[in-house]
Amino acid sequence: MAEPLRLKAKSASPGIASGPAFLAEEPKAPSAERPDGAPAPQIAGGFGALEKAIDVSIGELERLAEGADAESRDIIDFQIEVLRDPTIAEATGARMQADENVVFAWVATLDAYIGELEAADEEQMRARAVDILDIKNRVLGALAGTPTPDFPAGSVFVGKDMEPSRFLAHDWSKGGGIALFAGSAAGHVALLARAKSVPMVVGTGRFSAEDGDPISVDGDAGAVILQAGGMLIPTPAQAPATDTQTESGELRSADGVPIQLSININDPAEIDALDPATAGVGLMRSEFSVASVADAANEERQLAIYRQVLERAGDKPVIIRMLDIGGDKPLAGLEDLPALASGLRGIRLLLAQPEIARVQARALLRTAVFGRLSVMLPMVTFPDEIDRMRDIFREEAERLGRRALPHRMPPIGMMVEVPAAALMLDTFGSAAFFSFGTNDLTQYLAASTRDSSEADTGKAAPAVLRLIAQAVKLAAGKPVSICGDMAGDPHYLPGLLAAGLRHFSVAPARRPAIRSAIIGLNADGTRAAGE
């Protein structure tokens, strides 16, 4: 049996604690319902909604302070004082007057404060950043009606950092400890931990562990002890390079040509369908994991969802599509945006409302260190749209670097679902890969409405197949795949193979039928002898 792994850390509070690990950055994926079964609330876009959320947050903090000791009360009073500071509300209001949604205006305002604190020379000032992060997330939770849940008593809290209010809301009488990847021995949580004799270490570096794994915190020596199987996650410079292709070799056409078969997922739980014979995740529709504008503004929540997918995918590639919202895909709380009134969708909406794109870009950049991530842009029409989004990723990567947060730039490709893009695919030189979305491609090619496009698919199929065949030739050797509904229909498989496609991504339920059909076909789409 392998020996336990002992990681060096910095002591923040003395004592020794053991218990099951609670991984703070791996919450369950959000759903459209609240934990009590009630539907998720719609988030009003006005300043009144923010004022109400701030009042709710102050009330929560005041209740938390009831019966608290003097040190705890001082910390809570500091947070209440910040929430009541009129300059924060005014700065948020100014952003809203510039047509920013209330949630993103709040996030941008608080992120500016957090950035200033994190860049401070004094550790005491840098440690205050987590207090502002605490306030930011508390108000976000009030806006969305999703307060931060407690964690099991007796657990060892594992995460990048810990919010003071989360420490104060937890029952430490049954033991437990804290192990932080970053954190500060000068921060408020460390002060509280020492006051309540909770063993705590900081600066462990990011390490892997499963939720519930036995873990020990040695606050005397400054160490974390992981059971066999735990490991320190390498820094981005040590991590393997990403790639959008796989060499599983598990599936071949009847004449021996390798064919990749991936799956499309809408929810992290669907990755259970990813078995050794599957090439990877060819499409994760990120908008299905974002129930409201508050979720879209919550970087940590998105990071937790994407990280869960990559870690469960192991060494298989995962392509996550950025939020395809707008048009007939509304997002609760964004109804007041001018971009929506203009009918924008996909990448056009993301570029028109860059605050949405920047949060998701940061979450994806941070996710990329956990596996083979590629990012796909929705509804791309013109090459400059990719260039502008790539600039956003570069800018956010620089900010993450200044904050010393692990991250890596993933390959950025595009959905091919607009006929104008398909006809000019050779001009998209900055795209790392292409994936055909036949649902929208068929709709726009046949001038169909959303409701009638399914009925028109059969009639439009010859035109769609011809356009795909032309576009594959224009791809100039870059990786090409197909993830639309046509990929999951055996009836269209011969034509898609004949068009030159060798990578198919389908719904998990359609995979067995497509796999069987591929085995019976030659790579040019003709039936194998004897079939």
From TrEMBL:
The keyword Metal-binding applies. SUPFAM superfamilies: Enzyme I of the PEP:sugar phosphotransferase system HPr-binding (sub)domain, Phosphoenolpyruvate/pyruvate domain, Phosphohistidine domain. Residues 25-36 have a biased composition (Basic and acidic residues). InterPro entries: PEP-util_enz_mobile_dom (IPR008279), PEP-utilizing_PTS_enzyme (IPR050499), PEP_util_C (IPR000121), Phosphohistidine_dom_sf (IPR036637), PTS_EIN (IPR008731), PtsI_HPr-bd_sf (IPR036618), Pyrv/PenolPyrv_kinase-like_dom (IPR015813), Pyrv_kinase-like_dom_sf (IPR040442). One of its GO terms (biological process) is phosphoenolpyruvate-dependent sugar phosphotransferase system. Residues 151-222 form the PEP-utilising enzyme mobile domain. It comes from the Bacteria. Keywords: Kinase, Magnesium, Metal-binding, Pyruvate, Transferase. Residues 1-43 are annotated as: Disordered. The keyword Transferase applies. Its cofactor is Mg(2+). Residues 251-519 form the PEP-utilising enzyme C-terminal domain. Coiled coil: none annotated. Belongs to the PEP-utilizing enzyme family. This is Phosphoenolpyruvate--protein phosphotransferase.
